[in-house]
Amino acid sequence: MEVLTLGEKIKLKRKEKNLTLKELAGDRITPGQISLVESGKSNPSIELLEYLAERLETDIEYFLESEEKQASRICEFYSNICESAIISENYLRAEEFIEKGLFYAQKYNLNYYKAKFEYFYAKIMFKKNDLEGAQLHCLNANSLFLKLDNIDYIIKSFLLLGHISIMMGYITTALNYFIQADGILNEHNHIDEVLKANILYNIAMCYYKLGNNEQAIAFASLAKDKLAALEDKRQYGETLMLLSISYAKENNLNEALRYAKLAKKIFSIIEANREISDIEMNLGMLFSQTGDVQQSFDHLERALRLKMEYKDASVYEALFIYCDNYIKLKDYNKALDLVNRILNDAGDNEKIRIKVYEYLYRIYEAKEDYKNIEISLLEAVKYLENLDYKKELADFYTLLGKFYMKSNEKELALNFINKGLEIYKDLGIILT
């Protein structure tokens, strides 16, 4: 895809029609005059453009469209494709189209698209856990969106800055970003129930992390009420996105844009449901941690339904929160059944299996089932000794050592505690 000068457009259409300069000129002008126009050495009059448009069977608007307008349409196309690629987690494709789009946005000083592509870079870097890079690009995007007074993306960029700040450990900063997003949403009467629910949940989570339980519950309850009306919708967009890219390769911008917009719309619907499922899951965790187990179960049930529908890998996170609730209720049999189900479903997923061992230890410890505590810890150690999870192995060595210390088997206890200490020293967690 490229921006064409007026002369390049005329030449492109002439080649598409298989016309020579003489055939296009007809009896109105000379082939030489057309050649000068095509090379950019001469500017045609409106009358001549109307004549050429008629001869080339195209609208005169096609010739009159400025280079800036073409660049804007190309950026719109790249933006739509990029957004769809990010939602479908195809980050290589997304970065490819960001670079292409930024070229035109910078060349023609299209600030809106500069901001969007900065925002997309921030989202990708956040997904890749490059938090400093994500923060820098998101601040750049936010600054441009504020100058442009683009309410939707001002809010979205504040939200992303909040999420980045949480991951960096700056909870108060994150809370301020979420409150700013909510203030702008309210000030401009911007109606977006998914966005509002997302903001309310994040404010609640920040208050929870800051130890303000009363405010955490208040905002979590507001988020819950918003989410009550939001469910349903699905579809897929990969085929539409591929169609769009295919049309772009043929320089058919109109069809490329049309299919890109459809793909974006469909992926946006999928993303909204994923966001809803994540909010529901996190609300479930929040209510679990504040002691309202029934509320927690209600949200987790909705989260699981959505996550299983979209085959979302984070379904296991929701199931572990379910297990937390069963442990709180002292329903250890249900907790064990659920943990074993997770283990069977997770297959070769190493991180899930390690977490399963952690939960088995917690459940058996709560039951005071010392035989199975020992079995589960020994299995965990045997499993981890063949992997590269050093910190986790040290943790289980330490737990096993403490278990044997309580059992008055001091030699075994010291053996495993020392193994754990050696790993902690190697990792720099304990200084020698």
UniProtKB/TrEMBL annotation:
<protein>
    <submittedName>
        <fullName>Xre family DNA-binding domain and TPR-repeat-containing protein</fullName>
    </submittedName>
</protein>
<dbReference type="InterPro" id="IPR019734">
    <property type="entry name" value="TPR_rpt"/>
</dbReference>
<feature type="repeat" description="TPR">
    <location>
        <begin position="394"/>
        <end position="427"/>
    </location>
</feature>
<feature type="domain" description="HTH cro/C1-type">
    <location>
        <begin position="10"/>
        <end position="63"/>
    </location>
</feature>
<dbReference type="InterPro" id="IPR010982">
    <property type="entry name" value="Lambda_DNA-bd_dom_sf"/>
</dbReference>
<dbReference type="InterPro" id="IPR011990">
    <property type="entry name" value="TPR-like_helical_dom_sf"/>
</dbReference>
<dbReference type="Pfam" id="PF13181">
    <property type="entry name" value="TPR_8"/>
</dbReference>
<keyword id="KW-0238">DNA-binding</keyword>
<dbReference type="InterPro" id="IPR001387">
    <property type="entry name" value="Cro/C1-type_HTH"/>
</dbReference>
<dbReference type="InterPro" id="IPR053163">
    <property type="entry name" value="HTH-type_regulator_Rgg"/>
</dbReference>
<keyword id="KW-0802">TPR repeat</keyword>
<dbReference type="Pfam" id="PF01381">
    <property type="entry name" value="HTH_3"/>
</dbReference>
<feature type="repeat" description="TPR">
    <location>
        <begin position="277"/>
        <end position="310"/>
    </location>
</feature>
<dbReference type="GO" id="GO:0003677">
    <property type="term" value="F:DNA binding"/>
</dbReference>
